[in-house]
Prior knowledge:
seven-stranded parallel sheet
Amino acid sequence: MTEGATSRSILVTGSSRGIGRAIAERLAVSGFQLVLHCRENLAAAEEVRAAIVNAGGVAPRVLRFDVANRAECAAAITADITAHGAYFGVVCNAGLARDGAFPALTDEDWDTVLRTNLDGFYNVLHPAVMPMIRRRAPSRIVTLSSVSGITGNRGQVNYSASKAGIIGATKALAMELASRGITVNCVAPGLIRTDMIHGAPVEEALKIVPMGRVGEPREVAGVVNFLMSDEAAYITRQVIGVNGGMV
């Protein structure tokens, strides 16, 4: 357990399933107080909460809001901070994809992905950062990008744009917050075993993965857990790939 972890709370967006759930459960093992988040599926978030408690973790709080909705984010996060104090850490994980060839993308495909993935960065972190600064103590922010945000990917112009934007925003925010002892880093997964790869041409994609296999959510979660630890206090403004050697 990280020293003093039980007095530190971490908000993990999109933590009701997939990579977000794995991150929340791994951080709980390290003794952190988790603040879980979902957009609609409250039952799934409660399932994660129960799993953490049953494993001996501190009982998490659960927030429900749409990261693409600025007003909802501000209201929910501000209310939680007012009631329980500033977060030690935030993991911006919530995101979605609407894939398709660029000429076939609709306005909704573009707007939904950018508003969720990239605007979500602002919507979640903007109400959380000033309370972090006022804590006057070390804090952690981790964002989730993608290998698609580094290399670009056919059929994912909208998704690649949003994830590349997250990398740029993360690096800039890290510069602003470094003197405050707040680290800001980005984790960029590759092909990970989640619902997002269902129906995808996985065997074809594995041809460009030197390790020749799909990654597991727990392997992404382990990196995030490290970045939240005391040992990572001098690591900021970095993009860490979890992609089996794709880039």
